[in-house]
Each structure stands twice: as structure tokens, then as C-alpha cells.
Design brief:
It is built from 11 helices and 19 strands. The protein is α/β, with parallel strands linked by helices and 371 residues long. The structure holds nicotinamide-adenine-dinucleotide (NAD). Its EC number is 7.1.1.1.
Length: 371
Amino acid sequence: MRIAVLKERANGETRVSATPETVKKFIALGATVAVEAGAGGTASIADADYAAAGAEVVKDAAKGADIVLGVQGPDSKALKGANAGAWIVAGLDPFGQRARVDEYAKAGFEALAMEFMPRITRAQSMDILSSQSNLAGYKAVIEAANLYGRAFPMMMTAAGTVSAAKCFVMGVGVAGLQAIATARRLGAQVSATDVRSATKEQIQSLGAKPIFVESVAGIEGEGAGGYATEMSEEYQKAQAELVSGHIAKQDIVITTALIPGRPAPRLISDTQIASMKPGSVIFDLAVAQGGNVEGSKADEVVERHGVKIFGYSNTPAKLPADASALFARNLYNFLSAFWDKEAGRPVLDEEIGNAVRLTQGGKVVNERLLG
Ligand code: NAD
């Protein structure tokens, strides 16, 4: 069983899909590991560190590979020489990169999309969306604090008092919860909202104030797999009204709302931005999925009505060392959980296999792509 670790080729991608720690663990399972030279450079991991962990550091890592690991989906050039039927295990962006999925099928690869990992307890340690969103939620607050021309905590000084920043988090999934916790640690007064009423308690338990639409039913408990669905027009209208009143009093807004397979819901309009105080900051974590905020542009600080709006196309890539360490562990936890000692390779079960497998036997087989 030969595992390849590729150098990421996508613009702005700084992460790597294996670390010396996970390389060692794969070797302990009986695999050989080939790491493409320079793969860890942007995540502060030297080729020598991979070699010391037992990896072969080579130019053409995919050659002869049975499993190819990536952070993002590799193109056919990067996969040159991989064995017939090789597994490609990465964040494959199945909806956004559909043509590439078709190419994997045509080439006979078995593509496994890590973002399709089911949200079940035993798969938590394999979930790249959670591990990367967690870091993204933290980074969003740090970047917003950096752009904000004032302090976050209340400070009583001899020259007078600085008041605490008011921070509003919209969308309280994994990223939103971390954003609340980070803003609280920095001393902001934090409030938050979501369409899933189950998040109300979570917001309170972090010491923040829940802001919820009460007049129209939201999503009771958890939607399918814990995800949100698109809300009714009536709900969206009530939400916009509620947000308008609240947002005008905020200094920092962090938006994180996503709906799988759909463009991100629009949560903040230009009129609402205009109601905010000049100097306020909005960080749009969903900017790469279409954006929660009108006028937000990836990787560019946009100033509207004196409000700075910002968001990265790839937020976890701004914390390459930690993001790689967690991503690599997710991949190792996934493959090792299914490792069949006799076969000397992982053998997936039906529940997780069917959820993550996009292509097999020359065809696209995943229900979410076919349906
Ligand atoms: P996500 O990234 O898909 O979306 C972020 C948040 O935006 C969600 O909380 C969603 O409800 C919210 N949202 C969507 N539309 C909105 C709107 N119009 N207004 C306001 N908010 C809106 O979510 P996520 O971070 O992936 O987490 C979703 C849930 O799944 C959470 O409850 C999380 O704890 C759970 N989860 C479970 C597992 C597991 O059991 N293995 C793993 C990860 C996450």
C-alpha cells in the first residue's frame, strides 16, 4: 500500500495533507509513504522532517500510489502515474468542481470527498469541515480586530474609559461558536443568531446573547445531518427586520452562514451596512461561497459607507501549520479507522463509504451528485 502526499497546486493554498506525525502513523500501519518534494514548505514542514519520519521525498509522488492524499482535489497532471483504481482522498469540492469529479471517474480513480463525511459521532475525528471551520472562526475574529480602529475589551485608563466592542456573529455552526468564544476572550460584548433554534443554548453557554426570530418558525432541533436548509421567504423577511435593528448598534459582525450545495444565504444588505457606524467591520466567512454580505469580495477589503467588509477565499490557509496538523489527522483517523490488517489497506463500511465516495468503476456514484 503506497500513499502519496502531493504538494498543493491551487492558488493561495498553503496547507498540506500529511504531517511527519501522520506519516509515521501510516508507516506503522504497514504503508509506504511518498511525499512530493516541497509539499510542506508553506506549512513550515521541511522535506527533511518528512524523511526523518520515514517518508520517501520524491518529485513524482503519485507514481505507483494506491492512495493519493490532498487538501484540495489534484488535477490529472498531479495524478500522473497513480495506480489504476487509486483512491483520491481530499477536500474535493464536489459541487464546485464537478468537471474534475467526472475526470476522476473517467480515469478510473475512486474519489473520496472528505467534506461529505456524515455528521455522526464516530466520524467527528475525521471531519475536515469541523476542524477547518474551527480555525476559520478564530481567524475571522482576529482579522476583524486587526481592521477595527478601536480596542475589543473595555479598558479603564487614567485618560478615560474605552468601551467594549459589540460583536454580532451570524450563523452559529462550528465556525460561529469559535468566533463567539474568540471575541469573548478578547473582551467584546457578543451576540449571535442562527436559523437552528438548537444553537440558542450553545450561544448562552458561551456567555453571548442570542438574537432570534420568534415570530416565524425556524429549524427546530437539527436539520438533516445538523445542516441548515434554505429558509422560507417569510422567515427571511422577519430575519432581515430583526437584523436591521440589531446590526446598526454593532461594531463587528462575523457572518458564517452556509447551506450545503447552495450559494450562501444573503444576510446583510447594503442598506443595513449603511446603518452601521463608520469604522465598523464585517468579516464574511462565506465570501468564497457567494457571500453573506452584499458587496463583499474575496481577499479584498471593501469599504462601503465607512464600514470595512472583508473575507478570505480560503481562511484556514491563513493558519497553515495548525490547519495542516488537524487536516492531516482527519485523513489519518479516517483511513486508519477502516484499516484491514489482512488486506493491508483500508476497507470502507457502507455508511461512510457511500457518503464520501464520488466515483467508482468509471462512474460517478454519489447520490448527492446524481440526485
Ligand atoms: P455550516 O458551516 O453548514 O453553516 C454555518 C451555520 O450557518 C449553521 O449553524 C447554519 O444553521 C447557519 N445558517 C444557515 N443559514 C442561515 C441563515 N439564513 N441565518 C443564520 N444562520 C444560518 O454549519 P456547520 O458549522 O457545519 O455546523 C452545522 C451543525 O452540524 C452544528 O450543529 C454542528 O455542531 C454539527 N456538526 C456535527 C458533527 C458530527 O456530529 N460529526 C460534525 C460537525 C458539525
